[in-house]
Automatic annotation (TrEMBL):
Residues 1-64 form the RNA-binding S4 domain. It comes from Amylolactobacillus amylotrophicus DSM 20534. CDD domains: S4. HAMAP family: RqcP (MF_00871). Keywords: Protein biosynthesis, RNA-binding, rRNA-binding, tRNA-binding. This is RQC P-site tRNA stabilizing factor. One of its GO terms (molecular function) is rRNA binding. The keyword tRNA-binding applies. Key component of the ribosome quality control system (RQC), a ribosome-associated complex that mediates the extraction of incompletely synthesized nascent chains from stalled ribosomes and their subsequent degradation. RqcH recruits Ala-charged tRNA, and with RqcP directs the elongation of stalled nascent chains on 50S ribosomal subunits, leading to non-templated C-terminal alanine extensions (Ala tail). The Ala tail promotes nascent chain degradation. RqcP is associated with the translocation-like movement of the peptidyl-tRNA from the A-site into the P-site. Associates with stalled 50S ribosomal subunits. Binds to RqcH, 23S rRNA and the P-site tRNA. Does not require RqcH for association with 50S subunits. It comes from the Bacteria. GO terms for biological process: rescue of stalled ribosome. Belongs to the RqcP family. It holds the Pfam family S4.
Amino acid sequence: MRIDKFLKVSRLIKRRSIAKEMADQGRITVNDKVAKSSTNVAVNDVLEIHYGTRDVKVKIINILDTTKKDEANTLYEVMD
């Protein structure tokens, strides 16, 4: 699955267009490599997302095409 779609489905980023922008600006890494919006992600990949004032590091534990809001956080595990 493309990283921009995963970020939207998992609700780490609210809109796919914003996820695409952030990736194209180099603010998202996959396994310590800068990701483009078209980068494919898989289970066990580690994502780092650099928001304005904070960074979030997560490990992908599941990939689904769609999910409900309550279940979105089951797709990843927050890492320190």
